[in-house]
Amino acid sequence: MTSFLCKTCGTQYPPADEPPAECAICCDERQYVPVEGQEWVTYQEVCDTHHAEIREEHGVVGIGIEPGFAIGQRALLAESPSGNVLWDCVPLLDEMAAFVESRGGLKAVAISHPHFYSTMVEWAHRFDCPILLHEAEREFVMRPDDAIDFWSGDVHELWDDLRLLRLGGHFDGAQVLHRPGAIFTGDVVAVRPGSRWVSFMRSYPMLIPLPAHKVERLAAALEPWDFQRIYGGWWDDVVREDAEEIVRRSAERYVRALA
Q1: Which of 10, 24, 26, 156 could bond to 151 as cystine, CB 3.0-4.6 Å?
Q2: How far apart are CA 50 and CA 86, in angstroms?
Q3: Cβ(41)–Cβ(4) below 8 Å
């Protein structure tokens, strides 16, 4: 049997003789099916036609692939004395595994929201570690596995002052990773060009905004935590300083615009 990935969003499905009829992630209103229709690629094809891109990005190691694939995000390695977290996910693994092992391996995989689930099960199996997802996202897990550990509530403490914060917004269970001085956000808190503002959407490709009360809740959920930097979902998506104030004023501007 073959492991198929959606060519549009990068989600991996369970091994099968044929690809699914449709990608449930892309059929959701936040994503889209291309005009040409649903397209699939095998995991092996991705491995054969792409290569790893690893670079340090303002104090954090970024893990991406070239040429770009699907949504084009890069993952981040949140390093910690008691164990590293792979934040968000990219499909290529073999080439990157040796590098990650050289940095101490992984204690967990954690992903901001379903659009970046990608080959998370492959990573968890390779490093024998759990995948930490919020329970509100169960329906969007297209490849169920015993490695997936669903948590509940709004704060999930990890180790070495690392924690997951459920912010909601983009998805009900959308989460960010916080460590003192920084948050890792994917596009739950989306860094905008120029890195002086962030934004929040239900759907970015479909341009569906969030209602004001959800933006206010998201901003309030971040208020207790200290962070000067925001690491978003793509290369160079980094707010380097004054991030708390940028989130506050961005949320206020968003709510004013809706009014």
Answers
A1: 156
A2: 20
A3: yes
